[in-house]
Design a protein that fits this description.
A four-stranded antiparallel beta sheet has the order 2-3-1-4. It has helices at 16-27, 66-76, 94-103; strands at 5-13, 33-45, 48-62, 85-88. The two termini are 12 Å apart. The mean pLDDT is 93. The protein has three helices and four strands, in the order βαββαβα.
Length: 105
């Protein structure tokens, strides 16, 4: 059965912390999958332009799991204001969507 899939973007410090976060999110069944993309973020913070090596986590989850994931990120993330952007998935292969749903049960 397909689920109401969501993709959540969360940036984290690059390196071991990103991998640890991803493993914990999947182990806690907050998501079925987490992709980690290395990169550099340019942003304004407290009036200054900043540039940091970060990883972007693309977290595949369900709409029902988003509140639990948001709470976990808020409690465990090292940033004062962590990125947490939720994207609705308009469509996808039925088998993959069902796999996401199974991964968070």
């Amino acid at each position: 059965m397909a689920c109401a899939a969501r993709i959540v973007f969360v940036t984290v410090p690059r390196g071991a912390k990103a991998a640890r976060f991803a493993r914990q999110i999947v182990a806690l069944r907050l998501a079925a999958c987490v992709n980690i993309l290395p990169g550099v973020s340019h942003y304004r913070w407290k009036g200054k332009i900043c540039c940091d090596a970060e990883s972007l986590m693309m977290i595949k989850t369900t709409s029902a799991s988003v509140p639990r994931l948001r709470k976990w990120i808020a409690q465990n993330h090292p940033y004062e204001v962590p990125e947490f952007l939720v994207l609705n998935v308009a469509s996808g292969s039925p088998g993959y969507l069902a796999w996401i749903g199974e991964g968070v049960r």
